[in-house]
Amino acid sequence: xxxxxxxxxxxKRFTSAGSAFRKARSMHAVNGVSxxxxxxxxxxxxGESGCGKSTLARLILRLIEPSGGAVHFDGDDLLAKSPAQxxxxxxxxxxxxQDPYSAIDPRYTLARAVAEPFEVQGVTPxxxxxxxxxxxxxxxxxNPGLATSYPHQISGGQKQRVGIARALALRPSxxxxxxxxxxxxxxxxxxxxxxxxxxxxxxxxxxxxxxxDLSLVKYFCDEILVMYLGRVVEALPDTAAPARHPYTRxxxxxxxxxxxxxxxxxxxxxxxxxxxxxxxxxxxxxDRCPNASALCRSETPALSTETGHAVACHHPI
Amino acid sequence: xILRYTFQxxxxxxxxxxxxxxxxxxxxxxxxxxxxxxxxxxxxxAEDRAELVARYGLDRxxxxxxxxxxxxxxxxxxxxxxxxxRPVADLIAQNLPYSLTLGGLAFLFSSTVGMALGTVSAxxxxxxxxxxxxxxxxxxxxxxxxxLALLLxxxxxVNLGWFPVSGAGxxxxxxxxxxTIGFGGVALVARVTRVALLDxxxxxxxxxxxxxxxxxxxxxxxxxxxxxxxxVVTILALRIGWILGGAVTVxxxxxxxxxxxxxxxxxxxxxxxxVQACLLMLALAVMLGTLIGDVAQASMDxxxxxxxx
Amino acid sequence: xxxxxxxxxxxMSIGRALSSGIGMVAGGFLILLVLVAVFAxxxxxxxxxxxxxxxxxxxxxxxxxxxxxEFGRDVLSRVIYGARTSLSVSATxxxxxxxxxxxxxxxxxxxxxxxxxxxxxxxxxxxSFPDILIALIFVAIIGPGLTSTTFxxxxxxxxxxxxxxxxxxVRLKRETFIEATINLGAKPSHILLKHLMPNAxxxxxxxxxxxxxxxxxxxxxLGFFGLGAQPPTPSWGAMMSSGTAQLFLSPWxxxxxxxxxxxxxIAVNLFGDELIRSLDIRDRLRGA
Amino acid sequence: QDVTVAFSASELxxxxxxxxxxxxxxxATSLIYDRLVEQDADQSYHPHLATAWEETPDxxxxxxxxxxxxxxxxxxxxxxxxxxxxxxxxxxxxxEYLVEAIASVDVVDDLTVxxxxxxxxxxxxxxxxxxxxxxxxxxxYAELGEDFGVTAAVGTGPYELQSFEIGLETVxxxxxxxxxxxxLSENTGPGHIETFTFREIPDQSTAFLELRTGGIDLLLxxxxxxxxxxxxxxxxxxxxxxxxxxxxxxxxxTAPPFDDILVRQATGMAxxxxxxxxxxxGGVGAPARxxxxxxxxxxxxxxxxxxxxxxxxxxxxxxxxGWAMGDDGVRVKDGKQLSVDLFTxxxxxxxxxxxxxxxxxxEIGMEATITVFDSSTIRDEYRRNAxxxxxxxxxxxxxxxxxxxxxxxxxxYPNVSMWEDxxxxxxxxxxxxxxxxxxxxxxNFTAYHEYVLSQHLFVPIYQPTQNIAFNxxxxxxxxxxxxxxxRGQSFMDIQVTE
Amino acid sequence: MLSVRDxxxxxxxxxxxxxxxxxxxxxxxLGIVGESGSGKxxxxxxxxxxxPLSGGRITGGSxxxxxxxxxxxxxxxxxxxxxxxxxxxxQNPMTSLDPLQxxxxxxxxxxxxxxxxxxxxxxxxxxxILGTLRIPEPSLICERYPHQMSGGMKQRIVIAMALAADPDxxxxxxxxxxxxxxxxxxxxxxxxxxVKERDLALVLITHDMSVVAQTCDKIVVMYAGRAVEHGPVExxxxxxxxxxxxxxxxxxxxxxxxATRLTGIEGTVPTVLNYPKGCPFxxxxxxxxxxxxxxxxxxxxAGDSAAACxxxxxxxxxxx
Lengths: 317, 309, 288, 498, 320
Ligand SMILES: Nc1ncnc2c1ncn2[C@@H]1O[C@H](COP(=O)(O)OP(=O)(O)OP(=O)(O)O)[C@@H](O)[C@H]1O
Ligand SMILES: Nc1ncnc2c1ncn2[C@@H]1O[C@H](COP(=O)(O)OP(=O)(O)OP(=O)(O)O)[C@@H](O)[C@H]1O
Ligand SMILES: [Mg+2]
Ligand SMILES: [Mg+2]
Fold this sequence. Notes:
Chain A: One of its GO terms (cellular component) is plasma membrane. The complex is a heteropentamer of chains A (317), B (309), C (288), D (498) and E (320). Chain A is of the alpha/beta class and 317 residues long.
């Protein structure tokens, strides 16, 4: 399978505005992230809040400008595109957002929201617009009768479906899903995940799936990237692969099984997540790592280029 | 911490003050008419005029005039009033106390009464009281000041004879002006207090305070009030300039001196130095108000203290 | 822009505002008032400028229902025509102020950075300065009359609209749907005109509505200083400023326009409150 | 023992108690300073600091004998030397015109001075009686310089300046040493009242209420429209005195359509002075027919020149001038409507009067648009020649006011009519400088006045009365009031009622 | 220790909670699970007697604590219990502390109020408790403001406040929802330890079935303002009898045994304003019949557990 997406050494540095009294502080929200995503695959990105997952998604879609690195989409170097070219390209790479509640303009009817992609791209759909909209709504499991509703009249799960319909309107090949179910109830989350699975097989979509829920990622994805404070610390080639980075291990142990018979002994409390503004030298996980050594404190481990299962650790398990 | 913060805010005011001073300086040149004309004897010659122009330094370039002016201002040297023929500083010194007393009292009145009303209406959620408050607040923003002043005079001075109609004599002469200015302020402060308290009551931490077993009174005074104070302080601080200069109407009706009246009068007579000095004083008050507001907020709210420093 | 913005959403809200009891009464009164102002020549029983010195200061009665003033002019007719002046001055001023404030605020909010800081500093200053002083300075610069009153009121309220619009834009810019629309490949103009502005508008329009009330009061105050409408054009403010002595001689000359101002402003406020409630934008008004 | 007085509206805003240099003085000035002579209501002159005077037959010298034993508030003596320094101090001031005719002052002896004249000046006594010729202490005057009249004011008057807050109030305290009151007052010794507080109340309505509620005891200058209300109040008494001024409407002769004398004449005939007196002023005061108050002999002009209401004639004149009546009641000429600007100052009295004028102009087909200005801006407008018609008033009881308002030297302001005319200037010069005797002066001014009238430069409207109201329960006021105005001499006789 | 019987709550005309029963003993953890809006927090508020704050009232049932019915307790006495013998931990640590006050005094208050300690004693106790919660350098933390701390730290402070007066019952309303998984694990462990060490009765409210499975002894499943099933945790997970419970368990993605496919539950969660008549779940229930739409089901007891379903027995026959 050819790669639909190739991300190389992507970085983003945020700088807080300094003033006469305060030094400008900067942080790496995303630091040297590289991976490939083959057509038709689903890659999952997990990590704790603030580790840079959403920033990564925005960088890939070039919604924000990276500080370094490269993104190739279907062979095109995205960063070399002019704004106008970029706008056209967007039709092929879409995103579903974490918060369905604010993902639709409150003044737009669902029909108008779903038709907006065509308007924006200047594309005339094959069918009449109303039919096209109805078709899209049906595709995501919504009653086309809802077309005249406003967002505030429908539930969160339904809003998320509208968000997906909008993203799919222009037949993209890549869909970036940024925690699409995080703000939904479990029963609704299951609906949406089911829908995404169906769409993937029906439309041959490629997904970049972002989540903080390891079990969900394991359920949904083919490969998994584990991020910690802006870096990819481990790239699991498949969901069954055993964790080799201590952080991934911690993450897995913190995830409970939905089965009272499989209770586990939770490891005792460990240190705090360091502030991204002043990371310790060396490995960022060092303060919470049981295996930390002097080397870990001085040298940042690189993501091993070892084929298949890459890990950024001096002492992988 | 607070000192440092205050100092930083002060430094930040420098560029702002500079731009304001330029604006003020320019406003005066936008005014039609010429104070020299007011000053010239009728039928006097061009030389007389040139002489006066030179005497007041109006013949130099605007930039030079500006720097001379701002330099003088810095030394507290407000110059000589052209029409009123006395040091501007004297005029300010004469009028400012009136503005400060009136403004201060109105300020005190509207903040205390307003906060009390707002608090009561926020905690006693009674439909009748609610309607009364709404009506009162509405009235406060509805009735033009001069109109209210007239009605107050009619009632308290003419019919009841409790307070003098006008003037700046003893405390009695302050009552009606303070009431007039304070009325709108009371409504404003009451509204802000009420909203802020109701907002604060909805915060999660309040639930937890109740869950700790604290009494409603303790929660109100120890925890909710500080939160309600924040916006009230902001509003009040912003109104310092307002109260000093915005009392013109009231000063006019009650025949009181004050910064506002002085400004209006000087404006009418095109007395540049006085206009400039008055505007500068007001701008200073406004900036001081913002500063006080910011510092007060920062001293009450650790989050602000940190974010802004 | 204001008319176009009356989309289905806004119509719904106005409908909802009108459907509450208070909202209906207040809204009905305002509509009536506008009609009176527009059709003043048809409604007013007399010419507002016709003097009849022999019948000056006549008490309310017949044919002068609200009495006559010191020139024997019909007070009712003057109050009716005064609605015209007061409403149109205030509404025009607020419209100008709103247009300018929205442009400035949107630009400041959208572009941010130094431009934003510069705009906001200036605008904040005009805000914390007493509005009556701003008005008086303005009148001093361009001279008395309705034009200058209009501009003075417009300037006095500029800050409010600028701040509000900016706050809305800044808030909206962070909303997911904006990012989503950018991600669809939308141009900045599309974002600004189709999403940001329409969404920012609702609270600005409501505040504008409320400001019309304040504008009427400010017009009245300027009238009190003799700086508003020039005689014999009636304006409520000018009529109210006839002085205390008039309260003894012919109180109706002062009382009726005063009552007109009070009722109108109260109606504007009540209706505005109702709109705020039905648009559910109370929180959005607070931030600014 | 304290009496509070409110100034009349026209007296507000005096910036200094400096009779020599100030352009604006108020009644309190007349209590701080004494004048050499006083003028009574019948225009006769009475001795005060000068006990006697004598004019040489050719009018080229005046000798004044001064009162003995007079001291200034700073205890320096009042004598011939003081008068000499004082007259000299007018040089270069706004009020220099008052002493223009005096070439030099000789000290004859300690209590005798001689004024050597440039030219005969029949108006000299009038000038000396004016408030602007109160005598300040030369020592203090030299010492204080610019501050004279601001921080301190030193005269010989019955009251001393205790405090002066500009625009607010002036407090005067009794001069206990005073024994030299003029014969216009009953009381020539120290005043009956210990302290006079003069307040500046800008809003007439407020002043009225203050009087009504006892906040003030005496209100100088009651607007005529308040008279009816005041009369209804039991405790308030009113004194009416003949007025010393005229309300009128200057016409800008340089601004079309008023460059056409026919239009100007017609405009004059549009104003119904009688009905204005009756309706606007409730019959108090008198219609003005020409530019001078009727008590001045120069006001007796050829009756044909007096301005009278005659709308029919006005219409004819306008027709003749080519302004035909249009359908909407506004006259038209060459497709242009007869629309003019009518300026007025920002005070209730003026705006009222102006609105009536506006309505009366409409009757003859002239549409006037009113603009209300504050007094300073309106002056700028005149200077800019931006006006057409205006409603104004002046307060002056001497015919030299004609020179003030119509001299070609003062076009713009105060010559609001913008009138420059050779013949007019010639008559003006004669009247001002070439009259040797009083009778000659009257004749010259009458001629000038008549010429001015013939040019239709203004429309006279109204001669107000001076109205003084006081709280009869608190004070008593001399009756009848002597002097041309209610000032110093009358205050001497004010007493507190028991 | 604490037992709730047939609790009902109303706000004006709406009745968002009815028929909730459960009980919990010392050393026991009770889990209350349910989706958003199902009434979990309302239950907690009712027990704390804090409903009047939001304008609600208890319309029926009882809340028995240590033998007395709290619903009849006067406010003054209730205040002694709150924070004293019953502690509350709220959902969002970010907003649960007064941002304008330092941490120390906020925690001190509890000991001062309920244990009658003076300032220094209360502070000593505060530092002590913060220490047991493994907060480093308690004395320094006491001088900090809430905004200076991480979410996990704040949640521990809230727990410290709940523990300061040595309560018998702790009610934790979604104590970990706002936290990251690693932090969640720490907090859960902490609560677990506390139950064991202090012999606490813990009511753990959550929407996360995995958390319940990890920590609870008993659970109550809530749906649309009603308890639909309750019983020992193993039993409910092994043999859920209510179709809703079954569906809920089926909704959990189990990454490792990748056999099932997630479909979710058809339809949407009803809101307070349109709670269905009869069985609240019937519009979404695959097994619903006519009776479900009309008659609210009674609890059918089987062993220690009970399910409110007309077809509980049938359901039990074919576990999910
Ligand atoms: N525009 C921005 N300016 C400054 N800092 C930013 C910006 N956007 C994100 N950050 C910071 O970058 C870091 C990563 O943020 P990001 O939103 O990518 O995290 P995340 O992994 O998506 O977290 P979550 O799970 O909470 O969504 C955070 O510390 C955040 O504060
Ligand atoms: N003050 C109130 N007035 C009216 N209804 C209320 C009020 N508070 C809560 N409700 C309603 O009661 C129902 C239960 O709310 P509750 O907060 O207990 O749900 P929850 O299960 O805790 O949900 P979540 O998981 O979102 O916290 C909700 O549908 C809510 O709409
Ligand atoms: Mg994110
Ligand atoms: Mg809850």
